[in-house]
Amino acid sequence: MLEAVVFVLTVAVVGGLLFLGGSVLLGRGETQPPADPDRSPLELPEDRPVTADDVRGVRMSVTVRGYRMTEVDWLLEQLARALEERDAATAALRARLEQSGHPPGTDAAPPSGAGAGGNGARADA
């Protein structure tokens, strides 16, 4: 009879230790409040356009049930390349605009109505 009591107590103690260890390692629910949808822990510039280096510099926190770092890193690299292509295309267009004699920021289009006869009259009428 004494062996049965010792066995039951041993099983209870081992089970309790396993539960305690699992609780410490895996946590007992959310320990942090939910994230504010209007605020991100990641920081990107707000005073200028985002560049490829900004995207490459983003580092996300990793948790036990986190993300696959290789997939997110691949995605960030693709976004950075897209930003580099966009920036290169924008720079090329601005250079062409400057070479044509129209500085950036000025409207190169003719005033409205100037190309269609001035007073709105049709040419074939």
Automatic annotation (TrEMBL):
Residues 103-113 have a biased composition (Low complexity). The keyword Nucleotide-binding does not apply. Residues 114-125 have a biased composition (Gly residues). Keywords: Membrane, Transmembrane, Transmembrane helix. InterPro entries: DivIVA_domain (IPR019933). The keyword ATP-binding does not apply. The chain crosses the membrane at residues 6-26. Residues 36-50 have a biased composition (Basic and acidic residues). Gene3D superfamilies: 6.10.250.660. Residues 28-50, 94-125 are annotated as: Disordered. NCBIfam families: DivI1A_domain (TIGR03544). This is DivIVA domain protein.
